[in-house]
């Protein structure tokens, strides 16, 4: 889907992390930190910069920063700058473990409608699976 610069700026505004004192100004010999909160994202040739009343999307190249025109295609910039959603569950170590061939062969011998269970003494046995029915409305 084609995204223009204006829509990308609006959607990235609150996804960027705020940074205090990101701008400094030199007056004479002294350097002052401007009490301004800036939100920034940068990735692979693009910079998104947002202040409370202003936001801008820049293209970064060898010559420096150049502001992107409002009607310019910003689909690639959005894809690179948009942080993905954080997953709620992290994959554990079980996703990295491979099942040994002999265990896979033994588990494939379990007939349909049954599962592997254990009795009170810890001995393995086949247990018939429950048939769950849909609740009536």
Descriptive key words:
137 residues; alpha+beta; 2 domains; 5-stranded antiparallel β-sheet; two-stranded antiparallel sheet; 3 helices; 9 strands; elongated
Summarize the structure.
This protein has 137 residues and is α+β, with helices and mostly antiparallel strands. It has helices spanning 5-12, 75-81, 101-108, and strands spanning 17-20, 24-27, 30-33, 37-43, 46-50, 55-61, 64-67, 114-118, 124-128.
What would you say this structure looks like, in words?
The chain is an alpha+beta fold and 137 residues long. It folds into two domains: 5-81, no CATH class; 100-128, no CATH class. The protein has helices at residues 5-12, 75-81, 101-108; strands spanning 17-20, 24-27, 30-33, 37-43, 46-50, 55-61, 64-67, 114-118, 124-128. The strands form three sheets. Strands 1-4-5-6-7 form a five-stranded antiparallel β-sheet. Strand 8 (114-118) and strand 9 (124-128) form a beta hairpin. The two termini are 41 Å apart. The model has no long low-confidence stretch (mean pLDDT 80).
């Amino acid at each position: 889907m084609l995204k223009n610069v204006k829509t990308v700026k609006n959607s990235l505004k609150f996804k960027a992390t705020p940074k205090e004192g990101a701008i400094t100004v030199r007056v004479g010999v002294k350097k002052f930190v401007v009490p301004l909160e800036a939100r920034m994202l940068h990735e692979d040739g693009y910079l998104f910069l947002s202040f409370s009343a202003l936001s801008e999307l820049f293209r970064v190249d060898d010559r420096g920063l150049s502001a992107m025109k409002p009607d310019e295609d910003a689909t690639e910039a959005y894809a690179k700058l948009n942080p993905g959603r954080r997953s709620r569950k992290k994959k554990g170590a079980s996703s990295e473990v491979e099942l040994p061939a002999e265990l896979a062969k033994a588990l494939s011998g379990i007939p349909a409608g049954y599962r592997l269970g254990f009795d009170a003494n810890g001995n393995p046995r086949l247990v018939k699976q429950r048939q769950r029915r849909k609740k009536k409305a």
